[in-house]
Amino acid sequence: MRQVTIYDIAKEANVSISTVSRVLNDTAPVKGSTRAKIEELIQKYNFQPNAMARGLLKNETGIIGVIVPDLTNPFFPEVLAGVEHEAMQSGHTFLLSNTIGDYAKESEYLSIMREKRVDGIIFMGGRINLKHCEEHLAQELVQCASVIPTVLVNGGLRGTDLIRVATDESAGTALAVQHLIDLGHTEIGFIGGEIHMTTTSNKLRVFRKTLKDKGQKIREEWLLPDSFSIDSGKNQMLKLLAMKERPTAVFCVNDYTAIGAIKAATEAGLTIPDDMSVVGFDDIPLAHHFIPELTTVSQQAHELGKTAVKVLKAMMNKEKVKKLTSLEPQLIIRQSSRRK
User: Fold this and answer.
1) Is 59 a residue whose pLDDT tops 70?
2) What is the C-alpha to C-alpha distance for residues 158 and 143, in angstroms, rounded to an integer?
3) Which of 74, 190, 243, 261 could share a disulfide with 233, CB 3.0–4.6 Å?
4) Of 129, 145, 121, whose CA–CA distance to 75 is shortest?
5) How many domains does the chain have?
6) Cβ(15)–Cβ(4) under 8 Å?
């Protein structure tokens, strides 16, 4: 049986195709009797408008492109859940691209998204988290954003006016360090994060400033950036434990490194938090289920994803948006930190 098209509905209702389109998309008033007739035919034939045809009529594809650096990191699927929730409210689907931290893949996916004519792009990680992004990588994204509405999540590019949505990582770091100070800790270490990434350098900067402002001594040998993995947390904690003097508390760049740090300390015979307090960052789902449950800073990942889509949809509708939409972090106190 031949599939019914919008042309068939228009012909049987004795109206124009544009009138049927106005009823389908509710974009303009249609006479009540005419609307009722069209809706009756739509129901009669169980008519589903072809997405491609509808896209041609509205000059939209209904697709939002999403670029992420690492789907194995639970933080990004949490953001994606928020993206999906908000996108579905307006009938959008999304094209997901996992770059695995490869800038060439980012370029490839940006090209694919332009070819697919996505309605907008949400960009996370990779080049937008570099302290010093190469000019050609920055300009490629700027050029893409000039033709497709683009929102950067938890990152940015210096010297550009690209729209950003971010959780205030600086405020979150200050919350975590202040929490440890309030618990009576005066000897605090820092673990994890690649130093050429802004998320690491910003957290280290605020870590230093918070300790300095509170009159606390900063021990350079206890500041151990490396990477963002569980293994990195383990390795850096082992370095701390091998020192003659070691901190009574540690702030970790993310929850993965915090989990690795706790694992290494536990295997070395320490009890967390009795012998050492550990605080993470991100509040991934595992943080609540790990033993001990992890004290951490929530970036409100789900809300971050929802907000990014809200801002993107406003841009797609030609509405004016702020250059930066900032979310407040939340300190989540659990079992891995205690008074000294």
Assistant:
1) no
2) 15
3) 261
4) 129
5) 3
6) no
